[in-house]
Amino acid sequence: MKKIGFLSFGHWTPSPQSQARSAADVLLQSIDLAVEAERLGMDGAHFRVHHFAQQLASPFPLLAAVGAKTRKIEIGTAVIDMRYENPHYMAEDAGAADLISGGRLQLGISRGSPEQVIDGWRYFGYRPIEGEDDADMGRRHAEEFLELLRGKGFAQPNPRPMFPNPRGLLRLEPYSAGLRDRIWWGSASNATAAWAAKLGMNLQTSTLKFDETGESLHIQQAAQIRAFRAAWKEAGHTRTPRISVSRSIFALIDDRDRGYFGRGSQEEDKIGFLDENTRAIFGRSYAAEPDILIEQLRKDEAIAGADTLLLTIPNQLGVSYNAHVMEAILTTVAPALGWR
Q: Residues 108, 110, 116, 120: is their CA dihedral positive or negative?
């Protein structure tokens, strides 16, 4: 059994071929898509965050709106770039969105990936401190955020406040109990997966990973998952961690599917460079008739090792078509693989 959710990057473009031609389109369609996913029996609605791009960027208003419109589905991110975040403000926003949804927030965070502009976090007012690089800064922001989510008081109250204060040091409000256990770290390496486990975060691993062994993506991710589980056990955490894997998977059911995805354009992993020094492996897409797709997915070791699968969706093709994509996986693929 697996939880199955969707992951939308929230692209829009003013093109006649796109169903999402503006920011308003993609935001409102994201809410509608989450409602439709819940109706179909999907387990999660997740959104990617990119700054300085025609994509989703400010997750908490969207997450709160989705939380208000749905009742059961998990809602979250994959991922928020912590280089851009004020941990204190983020803790308030996350607490509010989680309370609105009734405790369904599954928040994926990360140190970030290459962005649209050079050092975009500087425009948000952030600078690495002495001895840090931007990745260190992102992880520092994450640790501060995690500490704030514990709900411990840390701020000295004013002796003459405008409103009465409880006794002792004050914490940020609104506080949502349990959210600290529903934070996920988007990891691109074995080392950061182990680091996340030590801090008690769940693990998200996507369709991109640092190429550490030259093996296929799913084999490297399976090793990453084992490293995460070993570090989790060594840290002595008492709860069971969760692990998600993202994949592009399309069951070719009708002529629309075959027209969009039936050309076999990416049936193998690809190698690229995130910068001049970082070699990365980008995962293949799966697109085939259901019986073929089932056999292909049986061999994916990372999916087998995860409890949650996030399906990356082509949001610009519209709500109706993406609902069809999700329903096809739920009905023609998931039962045969034991995911349902």
A: positive
Q: Which residues contact 62 (CB under 8 A, 6 or more apart)?
A: 27, 30, 31, 47, 56
Strand partners, 271: 281
CA–CA separation, 76 and 68 (whole Å) = 14
Q: Is the dihedral of CA 50, 35, 302, 140 positive or negative?
A: positive
* Predicted pLDDT of residue 264: 67
Distance (Å, whole) CA 217 – CA 206: 10
Long-range Cβ contact pairs of 23-30 (< 8 A, separation 24 or more): 23/54, 26/55, 26/56, 26/315, 27/56, 27/62, 27/65, 29/315, 29/318, 29/319, 30/56, 30/62, 30/66, 30/315
Q: Torsions phi, psi of 167, nearest 5?
A: -70, 150
pTM: 0.96
Task: List, for residues 191-239, the tens digit of each pLDDT value.
Answer: 999 999 999 999 999 999 999 999 999 999 999 999 999 999 999 999 9
In whole angstroms, how large is the CA radius of gyration of the chain? 20
Report the distance separating Cα 319 and Cα 149, nearest Å: 34
Q: How far apart are CA 78 and CA 206, in angstroms?
A: 9
For 207-232, letters b (16+ CB in 10 Å) and e give: bbbbbbeeebbbebbbbbbebbbebb
Question: What local confidence, expressed as pLDDT, does residue 275 receive?
Answer: 79
Distance CA 91, CA 146 (A): 9
Residues 6+ apart with CB under 8 A from 245: 205, 206, 221, 302, 303, 305, 306, 308, 309, 310
How many CB atoms sit inside 10 A of residue 286's CB?
22
Residue pair 316/259 in contact (Cβ under 8 Å)? The answer is: no
DSSP per position, 58-102: -HHHHHHHHHHH-SSSEEEEEEEEGGG--HHHHHHHHHHHHHHHT
Rounded to whole angstroms, the Cα distance separating 193 from 208 reads 14
Query: In sequence order, what are the residues at sequence separation of 6 or more whose Cβ sits closer than 8 angstroms to the Cβ of residue 80?
Result: 49, 59, 90, 107, 108, 109, 110
Spatial contact of 285 and 269, defined as CB atoms under 8 Å apart:
no
